[in-house]
Amino acid sequence: EDEEFELLDEYSDLADRVVESRWVKEGCPAKLNVRWKEGQPVESKAELPDWEHVQSFLHRFRPFILQRERTFFPKVCNLIARRLRSPAVDRVLSPMREYFNGKSLQSMVTVRSNDVVLNSPESVDAWLNAYEFHQDQEKREWLGSLHKLLPLESSQVFFLVLLTDRLKAVMQLSGVIRVILGHSDEMQVRAKSEGR
Question: C or N terminus of the chain, fewer CB within 10 Å?
Answer without folding.
Answer: N
